[in-house]
C-alpha cells in the first residue's frame, strides 16, 4: 500500500518535488561565478611580454611566474610578477621588467617596484620566497633565462640584490625554484629546476610541413638541476653533484616543490619535467635524493 502524509499527499510525490527543487537550486548555484576578475579595480596594470621576435626563438614559448607574499610584514599578501625581455633589440616603447605590487589593505594594490628595488629586466621565468637568512623578513629568488637573482629583504620595504655574495647566480636556464630546509639544520636551502642548454645565437630553425615553428624541447639538450646548500652565513654552496643520484639523466625541468610525502621527517622533492608525460619524485636518503619516475599514461591504463 502506498504511504501518504497526514494531508493525503503521497510520500513518493513529496520526495520527487523535493528532489526537483534541490536539482534546480544546485543548477542555479553552479552557474554563479566562483571567481570574479578584479584586476582593473585592484590597480593591477602589469603586462607580460615573452620578447616575441618573429623568428620563433626557442625560449619565447615558456612563460613567466609570479606569486603572493607579505614582503613588508603588514599582514597583507602582496604580489610579485615576473616578466620576460626583448631579445632582438627593439619593438617596444618601454623595457619590460618584473613588478612588485603592495597590498593597500582595501582590495587595491600600488606599484612599489622602484622603491623596493626588485624590478629586474632580465628574461624572467619564475620566483620563490623564503627567509633564507633567518632575520624574520621574507626574501625573494628569481629564475631567469640567464643568471638568476637573489634579493635579500632589508626589513624596511626594500631589497638588496645579493646574488654574487650569496653565490647563487645559477648560469643555466632556470625555470622554477623552491626553498626548503633539506638537511634540517635550520637554514633554507635552494633547489632550481633547469631547462635546456640554449642560446639565441645558436637557435635552430624547425619546420613542420614547410612552416617555421617553435622547436620542441628535444631540439636542445637538457641540463641538470641545481641544488644550493645554505651555509648559514648568507652564502650558499652548490651541492648538486653530491645530492644527485649518479645515474640520473638530465631532464627539461619545469616545476619543483618540496614536501614530506612519506611522513618520515625528511624533506622529499617533486620535479615536473618536459619529458613525455613523466614527472619525477625523489626520496631523500642520507642527504641524497633518489629519484623515480611516474608515467601518467601508464597510471591511466
Description:
The structure is a single chain. The protein has 301 residues and is an alpha+beta fold. The protein is built from six helices and 18 strands. The protein has helices spanning 11-31, 39-42, 113-116, 163-166, 240-243, 296-300; strands spanning 66-69, 78-81, 99-103, 109-111, 124-130, 139-144, 146-153, 159-161, 174-180, 189-194, 206-208, 211-213, 226-230, 236-238, 253-259, 268-273, 278-285, 288-295. The protein has a four-stranded antiparallel β-sheet with strand order 1-2-3-4. The protein has a four-stranded antiparallel β-sheet with strand order 5-6-7-8. β17 (278-285) and β18 form a beta hairpin. It is globular and about 55 Å long. The two termini are 49 Å apart.
List the helices and strands and how they pair.
Layout: H1 11-31, H2 39-42, E1 66-69, E2 78-81, E3 99-103, E4 109-111, H3 113-116, E5 124-130, E6 139-144, E7 146-153, E8 159-161, H4 163-166, E9 174-180, E10 189-194, E11 206-208, E12 211-213, E13 226-230, E14 236-238, H5 240-243, E15 253-259, E16 268-273, E17 278-285, E18 288-295, H6 296-300
Antiparallel strand pairs: 1-2, 2-3, 3-4, 5-6, 6-7, 7-8, 9-10, 10-13, 11-12, 13-14, 15-16, 16-17, 17-18
Amino acid at each position: 500500500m502506498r504511504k501518504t502524509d497526514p494531508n493525503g499527499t503521497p510520500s513518493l510525490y513529496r520526495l520527487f518535488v523535493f528532489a526537483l527543487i534541490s536539482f534546480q537550486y544546485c543548477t542555479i548555484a553552479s552557474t554563479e561565478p566562483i571567481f570574479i576578475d578584479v584586476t582593473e579595480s585592484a590597480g593591477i596594470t602589469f603586462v607580460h611580454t615573452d620578447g616575441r621576435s618573429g623568428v620563433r626563438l626557442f625560449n619565447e614559448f615558456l612563460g613567466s611566474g609570479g606569486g603572493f607574499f607579505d614582503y613588508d610584514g603588514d599582514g597583507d599578501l602582496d604580489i610579485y610578477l615576473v616578466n620576460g625581455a626583448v631579445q632582438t633589440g627593439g619593438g617596444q616603447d618601454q623595457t619590460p621588467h618584473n613588478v612588485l605590487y603592495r597590498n593597500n589593505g582595501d582590495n587595491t594594490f600600488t606599484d612599489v617596484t622602484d622603491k623596493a628595488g626588485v624590478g629586474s629586466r632580465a628574461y624572467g621565468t619564475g620566483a620563490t620566497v623564503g627567509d633564507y637568512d633567518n632575520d624574520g623578513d621574507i626574501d625573494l629568488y628569481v629564475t631567469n633565462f640567464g643568471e638568476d637573482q637573489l634579493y635579500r629583504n632589508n626589513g624596511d620595504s626594500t631589497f638588496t640584490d645579493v646574488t654574487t655574495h650569496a653565490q647563487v647566480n645559477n648560469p643555466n636556464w632556470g625555470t622554477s625554484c623552491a626553498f626548503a630546509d633539506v638537511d634540517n639544520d635550520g637554514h633554507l636551502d635552494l633547489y632550481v629546476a633547469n631547462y635546456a642548454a640554449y642560446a639565441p645565437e645558436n637557435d635552430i630553425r624547425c619546420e613542420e610541413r614547410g612552416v617555421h615553428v617553435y622547436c620542441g624541447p628535444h631540439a636542445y639538450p637538457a641540463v641538470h638541476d641545481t641544488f644550493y646548500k645554505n651555509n648559514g652565513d648568507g652564502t650558499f654552496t652548490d651541492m648538486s653533484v653530491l645530492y644527485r643520484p649518479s645515474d640520473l639523466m638530465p631532464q627539461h625541468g619545469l616545476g619543483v616543490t618540496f614536501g614530506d610525502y612519506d611522513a618520515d621527517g625528511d624533506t622529499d622533492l617533486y620535479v615536473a619535467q618536459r619529458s613525455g608525460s613523466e614527472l619525477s619524485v625523489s626520496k631523500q636518503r642520507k642527504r641524497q635524493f633518489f629519484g623515480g619516475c611516474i608515467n601518467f599514461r601508464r597510471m591511466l591504463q
